[in-house]
Amino acid sequence: MNVVVTGIGLLTCLGSLSSTWQNLKEGKSGIRLTQIFPDFPLYPLGMIGENPVKLKALTKLVVEAALKDAGLESPLFDCGVVIGSSRGCQADWEELATTQNYQNWLETLPHQGSVLTANLLNTTAPVLAPMAACATGITAIALGFELIQTGQCQRVIVGAVEAPITKLTLAGFERMGALATTGCYPFDIQREGLVLGEGGAVLILETAELAARRQAKIYGKILGFGLTCDAYHISAPDSDLGSGLLAVKQCLTRSNLKPTEIDYIHAHGTSTILNDAHEAQLIQALFPQSVAVSSTKGATGHTLGASGAIGTAICLTALKEQILPPCVGLTESEFDLDLVSVERQGEIQRVLCFSFGFGGQNAVLALGK
User: NCBIfam families from the entry (predicted)?
Assistant: First the structure.
């Protein structure tokens, strides 16, 4: 059964889907040095507004944008929901811990994005709220794809949202030594760490038959996915590539694709020393040198659990426009990869989106024109 994408809702520090895409093509970044908390130093951050965004507000905005883009309106009683998040309502938890006012604590549980979406749609279909660290977004899309493939739904809204600009999140990454101090430069020889970014993306998945019946526009087709876990280390990737390679191979097998048939890889590309080296090694081990590669985190920052969903939205736009986005922030590559340095036109038929998360979570998604 063919599963297609008929709507996208996206919000990053570069704006909506159209604004983010235009800025990406022009090589612009939404990251800026900000001192959001007085007791923290200046850090480069990818913020949507002047103050940290709230998860509920962000979820509502991207869901409504996706429905409008797909030409749909609530209620959608039979629409499945798979909306994930890595940090969830952590900002609210930190506020609760400070004020000790627990009156509305039930509205801050990790599944809040899915619950809010289900309520907006008035759905009675399955509602899921996955959490797989930075692989959450692609995991959510894969679960929604399976709901359709197994006949449980004909339409599912999928994706992830993240509001990670909190004191605890900043302090955690700071103690790990993972935060950049000037900006985000994926695969660059001078890369210095990740930059936290706010954002979210949700997609409307439908059977091709349903989309055809209502004459919906189609961004692309979900071809397959691969999900594995290293169980190797709480934060570092497995140095032998085994589980990461397995996720890619699973995805290719399920999609009936060969490595030589991939035109573009949207890399996880966090701009950390370990991740970029691990990912470059993985790509070199399996794909021809000619495959185009870029990461958009140099423009949006690392949106943690939402990054795979945002990357998927970017891949679908690339398929639709037949343009590859550049690796913003890259000046001098350390790796022998065909990294896209400026927007590139070409015949793009099949693409992969990678996500690798803490705890060894590996997620790969294949998309087709």
Answer: PRK05952.1 (NF004618)
